[in-house]
Amino acid sequence: MKRSLLVSFMLCLCCLRGMSQTISNVDLTKVYSAIEDKDSPFYYPHLLERYMANDSMLTFFDFHHLYYGYTKQPGYTPYGRGMGELAAMKMVEQGRLDEAKELLLQEYAQSPFSLNIIFRLGSLADMRQEPAEARMWLLKFSGLLRTILDSGDGRSEESAWVVISAQDEYPILGMLGLEPTSQGLVKQKFDVQTLRTPNELEAEKLYFNIEMPVEHMTKSYTKEVIEADSPVRLRKVNKSKSLGIN
To answer: What is the residue range of the signal peptide feature (predicted)?
Structure first.
């Protein structure tokens, strides 16, 4: 009974979140409509193909639809990765640059919009004295960074920067020259980063909206609970039938 109530509550929570389709400056209704329209220049399969082919002609609007549209793709996994990145960084320290690149590219294939992975690949290309490749990664990083910074100003809950993974917060803080001293979750949808002061932004805190990764985690957990319950219910039904109980 308790588990059933929990599942019902989480399903309702997902539905309520789904009704809110505008987050800060991001109109998700328009994004999702455009990426599903085969006649749209932002049709996701074609747009993603251009991105993965390292198309240097991608616009700001392309990056906007790529980043936020990725939350509707089956490969979207906002949590639970990072071990490959850590292993690759150890390889770099050991001078095993070729192996580090191969591992980072594997991570990139799984998380193509991870700011951390893209930054690492750009830095590695620079270390390997591959300026053309370093520039290619820089273009991706800059396009995604601009997309996030354009989503708000980070000064309040209402104008929080919208990220599709909490891990994207730290490269942004680093690029802005900011050092977080603590982090807190507010209302189950905002990461609040408390900053070391003084700083160039003259800000004590910055807000990141993490509604999309939280919603994804909630749905995934709900699905796991339902699937875990199903065999138990099926066994009960079969047992009742064998006993002639209606």
So the answer is: 1-20
Taking alpha carbons only, the member of 74, 58, 77 closest to residue 66 is 58
Q: Which of 152-177 are b and which e, b meaning 16 or more Cβ less than 10 Å from the residue's Cβ?
A: bbbeeeeebbbbbbbbbbebbbeebe
- Cβ–Cβ contacts within 10 Å for residue 135, how many? 13
Q: What is the pLDDT of residues 115-136, one digit of tens each?
A: 999 999 999 999 999 999 999 9
Provide CB contacts within 8 A for 100, sequence distance 6+: 88, 89, 91, 92, 124
The token pair that represents 170 in the structure block: 């730290």
First-last CA distance in the chain: 20
Please return the burial class of 99, using the count of CB atoms within 10 Å of its CB with bins 0-12, 13-18 and 19+: middle
Tell me the two tokens of residue 63.
């990056």
Beta-bridge partner residues of 208: 161, 191
How many other CB atoms are there within 10 angstroms of residue 12's CB atom?
10
Angle at 37 between CA 31 and CA 39, to 5 degrees: 125
How confident is the model over 136-164, as pLDDT tens digits?
A: 999 999 999 999 999 999 999 999 999 99
Residue 9 backbone zone (phi > 0: left; psi -120 to 50: alpha; other: beta): alpha
CA atoms of 114 and 171, how far apart (whole Å): 10
